Fold this sequence. Notes:
Layout: E1 3-8, H1 13-22, E2 27-30, H2 39-49, E3 53-56, H3 63-80, E4 87-92, H4 118-130, E5 136-141, H5 152-162, E6 167-169, E7 174-175, H6 180-195, E8 202-206, E9 212-213, H7 214-227, E10 235-237, H8 257-262, H9 273-283
Parallel strand pairs: 1-2, 1-3, 3-4, 4-5, 5-8, 6-10
Antiparallel strand pairs: 7-9
Helix pairs in contact: 1-6, 2-3, 3-4, 5-7
Amino acid sequence: MAFKLLVLGAKSCLRVSLLNTLEEMPYSVQLPELEGMSPEELASQIVAARPSITLLLVDPNNEQGYQAAETALKGLQLAYEQRSTPLIALSSHRVFGDQFNESGLREEEEPNPTPDDKDASLWLDYEREVAKIKDHILLRSSWFIDGDSTSLVDRFAPKLLHGKTPFKASSKHELSPVTIKTTTNALIAIMQQVLCGAENWGVFHLSSSDSCSEYEFVNKLADTLREYERESCEISECSVDDFTHRIAGTGNLRGKRLTKNFGIQQVSWRSGFSLVVKHYLESLPDEG
């Protein structure tokens, strides 16, 4: 009998990538529509469906995402009272707030955002609700390189392609970004091992095997754009005493639990980078 997977969350590039990959695997995937559903209704569906594992992919930092997260977690908590089901929930480096941490942040470090950081506070509330599920895995991701308008390529490429003045970037602001593909592969690898009996619960960090500065990332992006015969504006490096950076938050996650507990090797952010940029350029409207 095929394992039953319950996938909760709004539509996103990550969800599409995950579902496309699961199509080729012997799993039965269920996708409840959270919009307009009460936690009690969701709990009833979960108990009736008897999933082998649940994957939660939401972003609590917007109204739709917050409502989806709230419904999903309350529904899961109610369902758990009748039948326990392992939960893999995706989280974000944004839970640590806007402050930059030069040495990187590991799994054992507790998020402590400032009270006025609404974004980080929402992520922290979300993580605390996830932790109420006994058998849970909280996978914190670093910056996404691709995927949507908030990803690094989508944020920087338009400025490089259309900028009239030099693009200023920080050489001190370290990142450890990941692609949608890397995240998809990690989620599936964790899921498969949990389904086979692994009981490694708690917080895990997903990041690239090597970090880069904001300046280094932007330069790599500019070079790759030129490989596809797209002109980029000039790039200037912030001075040593200039702590200005384009990207808020650390995004510089560190951690060894994915490798130690699940044997998952972190992937370099450079892996597949050219293909990511190619897909981005192909998604742009035809200027002709």
